[in-house]
Design brief:
The complex is a heterodimer of chains A (221) and B (640).
Chain A lengths: L7 H60 L2 H14 L4 H16 L3 H14 L3 H17 L3 H9 L7 H14 L3 H14 L7 H9 L15
Chain B lengths: L1 H26 L5 H4 L5 E5 L2 E4 H17 L13 H24 L5 H9 L5 E2 L2 E2 L1 H11 L3 H23 L5 H11 L2 E9 L6 H4 L3 H10 L5 E2 L2 E10 L11 H10 L1 H4 E2 L2 E10 L6 H19 L5 H8 L3 H4 L4 E6 L5 H9 L9 E2 L3 E11 L2 E2 L2 H34 L5 H7 L4 E2 L16 H7 L2 H5 L7 E2 L4 E11 L2 E2 L2 H33 L4 H7 L5 E7 L7 H7 L11 E6 L5 E10 L8 H30 L2 E3 L5
Antiparallel strand pairs in B: 1-2, 1-21, 3-4, 5-18, 5-20, 6-17, 7-14, 7-16, 8-13, 9-10, 9-12, 11-12, 15-16, 19-20
Helix pairs in contact in B: 3-4, 4-7, 7-24, 10-21, 11-17, 17-18
Classes of the chains: A mainly alpha (221), B alpha+beta (640).
């Protein structure tokens, strides 16, 4: 029997009955959904606040670097790495401190800061960027093998010219001029025709010219 | 039991259905705008984010402004229609969107404090170096923007800049890198060399048959072409030389003088101090008497010999504005003061103090400290100037008038300059022939004219050019006169040149053979001086030569620095081809690394900063490449 066949009173009764049976379920459904929406919004708000705080803490690190204030720098970086490790600002805070330490020729703490940045970057292109910097600091400490390991983690094709040049530097440090020559060649191939880095890479390559299989003993005409 | 489960199950269905209803209601509330948009208008789409035509146009106009205003600009407005220019701007816009998307994903935030600082730092919102809220609001009104809109623009600008700035700011150059660079850059090399000049041509080599010349001519046709040249007819319109008939009658000049009289009049001015005895708004008679009595007393003191008016003003004056400055009102002109005050001034002489003067404010005692007499240049005095100005104005009017007519007529019939020139009484001039590199002097020395002369409109279509702006109120319109296509020069004209080239080729072959033979001997162990003597040359001995040694042939130097390092207790022997058929036999005996520590510390610091900047820029390029590779980018060039 269809709903319309009941008279008004009966219809009312039907509705009342349905509500009696299902009312609580409806209410629970509505409340759960509202709680979900509210919770999601709260979470968004929390995330935004968290990021804004991280941004201002990063500014503190940058100001401390500017002011050459090591204590304030360490405190702000500690806070960033501890409480905001999930934000990009923590990685850049570490990079800022690494820049400061490299400037002071303190390569150990610079290495640590960059290792932290690499380990905590989820965005691949930024992770690669910090890896390149880490490899350069490792090279500066005569650690070519570590530098090669760091470079190997960069997806092929990303920062190709820079990565190839650094591989060449590492191979040269390892006493492998042939491999270094190939790397510099690859770097030049990846560099634009008027890239400003061309000259210095070319200079590195030219310094590794292979001795000709010169026939020193060949007879003279 | 089963019933209970069934009930429970039924309940969960109801709960889920209503829950979803509520969420759907919230999600889609206020979202209908997304569905009503039916026509796609984006010019690019970066990972689903659309760049609208409007955004692109804004970026494009900014780019155009920048380029046109840049010093040494050679682009003319037509260049901006080229697809490659639009593509370059599109790349910029896409890069910006890539950075915005990345910032979004990484949670890059622009704190309100940063936004405030940024807005406050713009000089246009500042008064006396400080941010001024009223200036800011009125500027926003002028631009028709709400504060929120403007702040959003700045916020997204800052959001796109934050990452690149952070990348560049954290870039570095290590000391090891700087040292390694200096070891190479400052490297010196020890070597000796012998210059082997090309031999003189033999008698047989000097004989060149006509057939050989003809053959060479055929094979090297491209080397013996006359350049493509054009000459153009042009109408030159210059306000400075326009024919104009200004009305120089006295009547007209007088009218001009009257109209601009204020320019010729320097008004009278009075330097004044005063002491005010204030009256209430509606003074009673008693109050008036009282004030006047006080004013007279002060006046008497001020008029006493040796009185210090400034001090009296500080003591007595009711004018709070001037009291502290000793009553000083500065220089007043006609109309600055009220009529009663002015009337009193007119009667005073320099250095005199007035009797009390009644104005609506109260009684003033006026000290006239200095007077500048007004001065008017008479019509006769400025007549010459007026004649010049009238002539200049008339020329400019004529320029605008004739210029507009000319432009219109050429626009309507671009096939010839003649009708317009005849109608407007202008002369058509003609340039001599010139090539794409332009002429040394005359009209064709202007790159804009050359570009227009070889443009599609003028050269191919044979139409008149658009007006070419040559500076303030000076333009030309050009039309092709003659076009001389590139053509081979006649053989007779270049035969001598070809003969020389053939002889040179023959000699070069011999020179190369001789040089290679000498290298073989050198490598075979023969001494360099013996080889030098055989060639009738001297050995040049060079030690500690740096890369940029100015006294040596750069070609030789470049080659020497590319030679392999000599092995231990040995040297590197090589042959270096030089210009004009010369060869150098080179023996490289030593390579010494450069010593960076000899460079002043400050210069080392600069080098590291420079390296940091270069690495920062390379990092940023690499990042953009990686982002581009990883993003889904669609473009719609037809909508640009």
């Amino acid at each position: 029997m269809a709903f319309e066949d009941y008279d008004e009173y009966e219809q009312g009764e039907q509705v009342r009955k349905w509500i009696k049976e299902n009312g609580i379920a409806v209410a629970v459904g509505v409340v759960l959904a509202l709680a979900l929406i509210f919770g999601w919004r709260k979470w968004q708000e929390h995330k935004t606040n968290h990021e804004v705080q991280a941004a201002s803490q990063f500014a503190v690190v940058q100001n401390a670097v500017q002011a050459d204030n090591k204590q304030a720098m360490a405190a702000a970086l500690g806070d960033l790495q501890k409480n905001y490790a999930d934000t990009t600002y923590a990685a850049f805070g570490s990079a800022a401190v690494a820049e400061y330490e490299v400037g002071k020729n303190d390569l150990k703490p610079a290495t640590q800061a960059l290792e932290w940045a690499v380990a905590h970057s989820k965005q691949p292109a930024l992770k690669s960027l910090f890896s390149l910097r880490l490899a350069r600091v490792q090279l500066a400490q005569d650690q070519p093998q570590q530098a090669l390991t760091t470079l190997a983690a960069i997806p092929p094709g990303d920062y190709a010219a820079l990565a190839a040049e650094l591989s060449g530097d590492a191979q040269l440090q390892l006493g492998k001029p042939d491999a270094a020559r190939k790397s510099y060649d690859a770097a030049l191939a990846r560099l634009g025709k008027d890239a400003p880095e061309r000259n210095s890479v070319q200079m590195k390559l030219d310094n590794l010219t292979q001795p000709m299989a010169a026939p020193t003993g060949s007879k003279a005409q | 039991m089963l019933q209970a489960i069934r009930n429970m199950f039924k309940n969960w269905i109801v709960i889920t259905i209503f829950g979803i209803l509520v969420i759907v209601a919230f999600l889609f509330f206020g979202i209908e705008g997304y569905f009503s948009q039916s026509n796609a208008t984006w010019v690019a789409k970066v990972d689903g984010h659309e760049i609208s035509q409007q955004d692109f146009n804004t970026a494009f106009n900014n780019y155009r402004q920048q380029q046109l205003n840049a010093p040494g600009n050679t682009m003319d407005p037509a260049d901006f229609e080229k697809p490659e220019v639009k593509q370059a701007v599109l790349n910029q816009v896409v890069n910006r969107q890539l950075l915005l998307n990345l910032g979004d994903k990484l949670g890059i935030k622009v704190p309100d404090s940063l936004l405030r600082e940024q807005i406050a730092s713009y000089p246009i919102f500042q008064v006396n170096g400080k941010f001024d809220a009223t200036v800011y609001t009125s500027w926003l009104q002028q631009q028709g923007k709400t504060p929120e809109q403007f702040q959003d623009e700045i916020r997204s600008d800052l959001a796109t800049q934050q990452l690149p700035q952070a990348i560049v700011a954290t870039a570095f150059g290590t000391k090891a890198e700087a040292d390694a660079f200096l070891r190479l850059q400052l490297q010196t090399r020890d070597f000796s060399y012998v210059d082997l000049p090309p031999p003189a041509p033999t008698a047989a080599q000097g004989e060149v048959a006509d057939a050989e010349v003809a053959d060479y001519y055929k094979q090297h046709q491209a080397d013996f072409m006359t350049p493509e040249q054009v000459s153009v007819n042009y109408i030159d319109l210059d306000a400075a030389t326009m024919k104009a008939e200004p009305d120089l009658s006295d009547k007209a000049l007088q009218a001009r003088y009257d109209k601009e009289k204020s320019r010729f009049v320097s008004p009278a001015q009075w330097q004044v101090s005063h002491i005010l005895v204030k009256l209430p708004a509606k003074p009673s008679e008693a109050e008036k008497q009282d004030a006047l009595a006080r004013a007279r007393k002060i006046d008497a003191e001020a008029k006493a010999p040796g009185a210090d008016f400034a001090k009296l003003a500080e003591q007595y004056s009711d004018d709070l504005g001037s009291k502290r400055q000793g009553g000083d009102l500065g220089w007043l002109s006609q109309g600055d003061a009220g009529p009663e005050f002015q009337a009193a001034l007119d009667k005073l002489k320099k250095g005199e103090v007035s009797d009390p003067v009644l104005t609506s404010d109260g009684y003033h005692i006026i000290d006239l400290r200095d007077v500048r007499e007004g001065h008017t240049e008479t019509f006769a005095q400025v007549r010459d100037q007026l004649v010049q100005e009238a002539t200049k104005d008339a020329r400019q009017d004529a320029y605008r008038d004739v210029g507009n007519k000319l432009t219109d007529m050429i626009y309507n019939d671009p096939t010839s300059l003649k009708p317009a020139a005849e109608k407007l009484g202008l002369t058509i001039q003609t340039t001599p022939l010139f090539g794409r590199e332009g002429a040394q002097s005359g009209l064709a020395a202007d790159p804009k004219v050359v570009k227009a002369a070889f443009s599609d409109i003028v050269l191919q279509q044979g139409n008149a050019s658009d007006p070419i702006d040559l500076g303030s109120e000076h333009m030309v319109i050009i039309h092709i006169d003659k076009h001389v296509a590139a053509a081979p020069k006649p053989l007779a004209e270049v035969a001598g040149q070809i003969k020389q080239a053939i002889i040179q080729q023959r000699v070069d072959v011999d020179a190369k053979k001789a040089a290679e033979a000498a290298l073989a001997k050198l490598q075979g162990g023969e001494k360099l001086d013996a080889l030098a003597a055989a060639a009738g040359q001297q050995v040049q001995q060079k030690t500690d030569v740096s890369r940029n040694e100015a006294s040596l042939d750069p070609e030789l130097l470049d080659a020497v620095f590319k030679l392999a390092h000599p092995a231990k207790d040995a040297d590197t022997r090589a042959l270096v081809p030089l210009a004009k058929g010369h060869y150098a036999l080179v023996v490289l005996s030593g390579v010494k690394p450069g010593d960076g520590s000899k460079i002043p510390e400050q210069a080392q610091g600069f080098l590291r900063e420079q390296m940091a900047r270069a690495f920062g820029a390379a990092d940023l390029d690499g990042l953009m490449d990686a982002l581009r590779k990883g993003a889904k980018i669609e473009t719609a060039p037809d909508r640009m």
